[in-house]
Amino acid sequence: MPLTDAGRNAQLDGLAAVAGFASLHSGDPSTTGANELTGGSPAYARKAITYAASSTGTKANSASLTFDIPAATTVTHVGFWSAVSAGTFY
Question: What is the distance of C-alpha 58 from the center of its chain?
Fold first, then answer.
């Protein structure tokens, strides 16, 4: 049985409450957040996400994210974390 929009919105709001930082990865992050970018000048760092309100079962960030990516790096995955460093990978 599918969820209603209200149910999807509640799930998205719960995830947004704990997964407040985005990361970039050069390979499959698996379940641990592996292959997260490092280095560069200015140095790569995770970015805080500002979420818009959930609506009709969708949720989006409400502000653009700009990452510093080291030269000659290929980004293949985006990850979500509970903290700017360390933390839980979602």
Answer: 15
